[in-house]
């Protein structure tokens, strides 16, 4: 049996994933000398993931969105 999370559970999962992506992006940007095409691709990927997670959170009903 597959269990689907309710909106509160989904919000918690999305917020956790969003925090992980933001932390990974910060660590990547903090690395000195982390230039080059590979580093830029990684930054772009994290930024894209962050935008996607934020959009998904916006689609949740207002009653379950995390308050800033």
List keywords for this structure.
68 residues; mainly alpha; 0% strand; elongated
Question: Would you kindly provide a written description of the structure presented here, covering whatever features stand out?
Answer:
The protein is mainly α and 68 residues long. It has one domain. It has two helices and no strands. Helix 1 runs antiparallel to helix 2. The longest helix has 24 residues, at 7-30. It is elongated. The mean pLDDT is 86.
Short description:
Helices cover 69% and strands 0% of the residues. The chain has 68 residues and is mostly helical.
**Backbone shape:** elongated
Helix content: 55-70%
Task: Spell out the helices and strands N to C.
Answer: HH
- Discrete helix count: 2
Radius of gyration over C-alpha positions, nearest whole angstrom: 15 Å
Work out the count of structural domains: 1
* Number of DSSP E strands: 0
Content-based structural category: mainly alpha
What is the typical, i.e. mean, pLDDT? 86
Can you lay out the helices and strands and say which pair or pack?
Elements: H1 7-30, H2 37-59
Helix pairs in contact: 1-2
């Amino acid at each position: 049996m597959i269990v689907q999370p309710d909106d509160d559970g989904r919000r918690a999962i999305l917020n956790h994933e969003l925090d992980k992506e933001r932390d990974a992006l910060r660590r990547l940007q903090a690395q000195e000398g982390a230039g080059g095409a590979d580093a830029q691709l990684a930054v772009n990927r994290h930024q894209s993931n962050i935008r996607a997670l934020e959009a998904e959170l916006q689609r949740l009903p207002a009653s379950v969105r995390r308050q800033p």
